[in-house]
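Dear Dr. L.,

I hope this message finds you well. Following up on our conversation about the binding site, I have prepared a predicted three-dimensional model of the protein together with PMV. For your records, I am including the exact sequence and ligand specification that went into the calculation, followed by the structure tokens. Please feel free to forward this to your student if that is useful.
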Amino acid sequence: MKASAVAPANIAFIKYWGKIDEELRLPANGSISMNLDKCLTTTTVEFDKRYAEDSFEMIEEVVKEKEIERVKRYLSKLRKIAGKEIYAKVLSQNTFPKSSGIASSASGFAALLLAASKALGLNFGEKELTILARIGSGSACRSIPSGFVEWKFGKTNEQSYAYSLYPENYWDLRDILAIVGTDKKKVPTTEGMESSKNTSIFYKVRVIEAHKLLKKMKSAFKMKDFRILGEIIETDAIYMHCVMMSTSPALFYWTPKTLEIIKNIIQWREEGFESYFTIDAGPNVHIICEGKNEQKIIDKLKKIENIESIIVNKPAKGAHLINKHLF
Ligand code: PMV
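The resulting structure of the complex is given below.
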């Protein structure tokens, strides 16, 4: 049977960097994110007896052998749950550049799980879906529920799931994404996290702080206090990058352009245009602002030279099935 799904990427306001269980991908701290309406993955999965093995391709993108193997391993897990010995053809399409610090694995595994489980006739509830997506790629669990999402810290498989903290229309926020480099990441997140855990002297202290920041952020959400929210977003991003930079070998994801944009954002704030930055495992800068300031921030950003492209994201609904198939 054939099924298709769309899932958004998400930007973490409280980041996930490190696990307490590698196999189950249980994070060392809970995280909070916003789904991105312009960074989507669409995936069609067809299980059929005529396929002798699983295949995975992306439209207009070359997929590495390692990535194909990861998808195949994931499909095998789902096949085992369904109790079916049948192979699949998987085709995906992204609306954004892959492996550039935009969590393509998040939207990718969320869309894959939803389409594959439907095609296999499995009917999971949202909580179960988030747990299964987490096993594919940690941050993927945050792309299943809608809007603003918390992925809970938990010591067992069942305890670490994601849920919608608030729907997408709760707060009119923007993630204005300044793309400054689309080169593939040199160190994948799974390896980077493990390496940080083993070598960064700041790893443990950041985990403790992340738990505290997450609590504070939830109250900023409740009060819709943008200044407090933004300050926590920046603090958490800086802490994560301190851990990355103090890893051995060092993980420097920033480029001079990244820092130039950060400095501009701080300057804009002094001028009264409130926005805050966050950065994932790549050089691109996510500028978080309120909807009312969107145009002003874009105008200012456009004055900075050599920004490859700008993607303006609103909060989005989570992964969902669609009727239009890619093949
Ligand atoms: O789930 P992964 O392997 O894509 O890791 C995501 C790591 C960060 O994007 C850097 C942080 C986060 O919480 O999204």
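In brief: The pocket of PMV is lined by residues 12, 15-17, 31, 103, 105-106, 137-139, 189-190, 280-281 (CB under 6 Å).

With kind regards,
A. P.
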